[in-house]
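User: Show me sequence and structure for the first protein, then do the same for the second.

Assistant: Starting with the first protein.
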Amino acid sequence: MNVVEVLLGVFGMVAILGVGLAFVAFPEEMLKLRFAHLRSTRRYITSTRVTLYRIIGLGVVLMGLLGLFGFLF
């Protein structure tokens, strides 16, 4: 494995972690982006969807961390 492959792998895993952290930290904003084509997004942002987005984000963060450590070590 050369240096370019290692850097691309690390940057890819960091990008996955960034997406997961965005879902965990800002689930309301992610839901607004999802329903941006509608006039009013207020009724689509429910606590159940926010919780679901946080769980999905935690799963993505966990997969990113496992991938990063598995790739590096």
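Switching to the second protein now.
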Amino acid sequence: MRCSAPTETAATLTALAHVLTIQRVSRSYPDRPPSTWHRIYIDAVPRDREEARQ
């Protein structure tokens, strides 16, 4: 996942958690200069439909 700010990363993880069970989140890795973006890696699996509705 690539986002430009920590707040965007947090918001994206929150949105993904509605449909995925996030098992692990890596530390933030900066992209190569001159980019100001950073990336994180996640391990996740789909949530079952009943769990995702809650």
